[in-house]
Amino acid sequence: MNEADLDYEPTVTEVIAFQNDLFRTHLGNHPYVKGKVLATSGVRQRGPQFLNDVAEAVRTFSAFNKEDDPHGEHNFGVIYVAGVKLYFRIDLYDPDYRFGSNAPHDLTATRRVLTVMHPQDY
C-alpha cells in the first residue's frame, strides 16, 4: 500500500454498485440498504421451490458484464433457474417509492426495488 491508496475515494457509481450488491446478497434484508424484493406473477406462479431457487440465484449472482451492466452499477443481471431464463433489475427510488431517488448513493434518500421477471416482462 502506498500513500496514493490512502487518498482513494470511490466514485458515485462504485458506491451505488457496492450498495446494490449488499442489497442483492441480503435479498432486501440488509439493515442499512433498504428496499423491497418483488417477482412478477409469471415467476411467482412457478411455485415456492422455484422462488427459493430464484432467490439463491439472485443472491449469489456475480457475473456482471458491460453488455448487461453498462454503467457498472450492478443493477441488472441474467440468471437461469431450472432452465428458465430470468432477469433481475434493481431500481432506486425516493423513501416513499414514488419517484426516482435524487441522491442514489445516499442510503437515507434511497430505497431499492429488486424485481425478478421473465424477459418478456421487461
UniProtKB/TrEMBL annotation:
<dbReference type="InterPro" id="IPR022243">
    <property type="entry name" value="DUF3768"/>
</dbReference>
<dbReference type="Pfam" id="PF12599">
    <property type="entry name" value="DUF3768"/>
</dbReference>
<protein>
    <submittedName>
        <fullName>DUF3768 domain-containing protein</fullName>
    </submittedName>
</protein>
